[in-house]
Amino acid sequence: MKAIVKYIILIFVLAAPMGLEAQVEFVAKVSKKKLGLNERLRIDFEMNEDGDNFEPPDFEGFRVLGGPNQSISNSWINGKRSYSKTYSFFLAPLRKGAITIGQAAIEIDSQRYKSLPVEVMVTEAVEIPKDGNNADYLASENVHLVAEVSNTNPYLNEAITVVYKLYVSNQVSITSNWREIDSPKYADFWSQTLDQKGQLQIYEGQYRGEDYRYVILRTTVLYPQKTGELSIEPLTLDVPIDVRSNRRDFFGRFMTTRVNKTISAGRRTIEVKPLPLVNRPEDFTGAVGYFDFDTSISRTELDAQESLEYSVTVRGEGNLKLFELPKPQFPNAFEVYEPARSDKISTRSTGMRGSVAEVYTLVPQNQGNYPLPELSFSYFDPNLERYITKTATDHVVNVINGPEQETTQQSASDQSASTVPVDKERFRYIKLKADWTPTNPTPWFGTWAYWQWILGLLLLLPVWFALSAVRERYLGDTAARAQRQRKRLIAQYLSEAKAQQNNPSAFYGALERSLHLFLKAKLKLETSGLSKENISKLMTQRNVAPEAIERLIGLIERCERARYAPTTAVDVQNDYSEAQEVISMVNSTKK
Fold it and tell me: CATH says 289-399 is which class?
């Protein structure tokens, strides 16, 4: 019996190492547990057995710069096999703080294994060692992205230009394979990005006093729509940079090292001045720039019921799409049709230039001479820093043939100057004494028709009481009444956006205006107070649900992004439905 126990123990001792040897390992290893916001992280997912169907984590909080890169090691040492398979990723952190990298998964021998989560700490950007042999340092010192703003202190609605330039020194080289990570955001600006025609052109210039090459990546024209301090979110690129090392290849040529760097133009701040209130004309509608103004008519003589065209035109350079043209007043003898608008505008690096016009069709109804009163137009000149009013000449229209206009009023002087004789025979056909006889001498009271009317009224009383009860229940249902009021409110605010659903660009502009009007009415705010932080704070104070606040802010941000990002009909319909739900949620909140 003792011999049998010894044999069993010996078998377990010999089998234990084999069991340990066969144990599968799948682990995640990082190059560092703490790194700066401007540093890079390498993470390796290692396994000691060959596996398939590798599933990486989503890397939330990081941007993937490279990977997965796969490597395999298989060796025999002293008769013992050593195997490893690795999937490697290179990551750039997107925010500070503790970030957890989730689990990866792999299938080994039909079994599914997962790695453990890994937590890393991201700190403020750290200073890169000034090592002339360090490729990261050389790349960061020789490639720069700059946002050049033409004017950081403009007036409201005055054009400014933002030019994004990528400067590259002669010490490094790049290709055109850079990738845009974050696009600039122009909240509170009317913006238009100019097309870059053809390939990017390389220029010679200087950056911080040194010779550089540069390309112009993007040129955007902005018109600020609010006063005060406004921010322009940065353009951020991921750029592959080839850095020359001190090593040489077999043929004596310097070898290069490729480094991926994330570079940003940085946030720019614009301080927008309000337009002066002193000497502001009453007919000023927001035009800022340099303009000419005139009116014209297509003909000066015509017959009644014929038509002529009256044109109001503003031409020049400025915010041509962002103001209203003056509205003329026409004589009552003209039938006036809604004006047709004609825009001929081009946007250049200095702003909008061209003309806008409204053409009225007029149809005179009577003959006579009709003066069309002179019309004026006011605008603000940012260079002269004052308002300018221009007046167009008046016009006279001569209607030759047609019915004469009836004179409905005679002046007091004419009435007192003439006495009209009364002709007594003129009214002889009027009968002064009435000789009436009743057409139906039979009394109606007490007749069969009389009792029919009484019976009909009695039968209508129950119907009237029933309708009154239904009406009281209808009006007494406060929840239903509130729901009806919310529907009317939604229809009121979103009517303009609904009419523009076939035009995504116009739809999002109208939707953003509708949301701003709703918030101004709901939160009692002026336009200058409609910042996202202010909206969120005030809505929280009014006990609006966090979900409604988050959805509303997200919808406003999508409206802003839609100015420069392509959209589809599905996006338009989804965002319109989202706006209906959000306005209903916010409006139903009890203070």
Answer: mainly beta
